[in-house]
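Might you be able to review the protein record set out just below?
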Amino acid sequence: MLEAFTESAETEIRGYLAQSGKSDDGPMTLHFHEPVNHDGKGLVEVAIGYDGSLEPTGDLRIRLQPAGREAFLAVAEPFETFPAVLRVYDAIEAWFEQSDDICCFGSPYEIYPGSGSARFDVAYPIVR
């Protein structure tokens, strides 16, 4: 269900960007504002960055997100599906627990395409 929602939202956003004369080839991010699992549907947000300004339309919303830093891991193929992907999230969170000078803030997200040959990366916004 999440995959179908993500594909539909990405297609709609990229179509609107192209129709509006904006570049539609940026990476897609899938933000998890609430837990998503087999038992519950949490709040998720599909986003694609672009330059310039644009008016929202229909169900599409515009959000200004300032540049920032992130900690991320490329997701290896054996961990691309649920629940195996949760081990990637756990690994990043364990790294935060071991760090004295890096803090996570905000919701985790996935970046498509990922770095290197990874289909996607798992990322968390960070501050020092």
